[in-house]
Amino acid sequence: MALRLHLPHPTTRSAPARERRSLGARVFVVQRSGAVLVALFLLVFGLLGFAGGLDFFSTEGERILGMSSNGLLSLISVVVALVLLGAAARGPRVASTVMIVVGSLFLLSALGNMAVLRTSLNILAFEFSNVAFSVVVGLLLLMLGAYGRISGHLPEDSPYAHPHALAETDGDDGFPSTPAEFAAERAMREAEVAVVQHVASFDQRRRVAAMAQVTSRADRRRVWMSFDEDARR
Description:
Distance between the termini: 37 Å
Shape: elongated
Structural class: mainly alpha
Strand order of the largest sheet: 1-2
Oligomer: single chain
Strand content: under 5%
């Protein structure tokens, strides 16, 4: 019993590390799933407009999903949906940037179209429900795009935690893109600090020595992760 009381508690000690990894991985999920969900709604809205054979430039739109639409608005909705889906496929960093830009455009569209409601300049056939939708979707896209990116306390494995350090180290696109790669980046930094402070383990010293043979961050990360692959074989 006495011996058990003095044994380390790895589960409790590793909980903060798991929490940091989950926070960082959540950034990826929010960026991509948010872009996909908004895109799917816009895609359905646009395709229903095409299916209804709406006049392209009519200022008197027809009701689609509780909003007014014409052929031009249907086309714009489909194009924006495809842009969001393409951004989500490229990665969370691209999805975040695109969502912030598109969200800002939605808010500008709401203001501009509200000024021309019930006039001949209302080429998108907007009604007040469209204006409200544009405001809600614009704010939603801005919030999702900024999640995990615009904050003073980003998780350590967030893709936006150390943009300047990564940019200075890599001349190419050496940014990590998966939770495993961000975990490797964190372990690399810890090992390099341990080597400098002369407290590194044998495994940390040999990994850092191997990484010293390459220059780019992407290559250094691949060298580090190759040790993990060898250990699993």
